[in-house]
Amino acid sequence: MQKDIFIQARMSSTRMPGKVLFDIQNIPILVRTINRIRRCKIADNIVVITSTNEKDGEIEKICNKFSIPIYRGSESDLLDRHYKAASYFGSDYVFKIPSDCPFTDSEIITKVLKIADKYEYVSNYHPPTFPDGLDVEGARFDILEEAWKFATKPHEREHTFPYIWDNPSKFKMKNFNNKRGNMFMTHRWTLDYPEDLIFIKAVYKEFNYKEYFSFEEILNLLKKKPELSKLNSMHNGINWYRNEASNLKTIDSSQYKIESKHKNET
Question: How far apart are CA 162 and CA 94, in angstroms?
Answer without folding.
Answer: 15
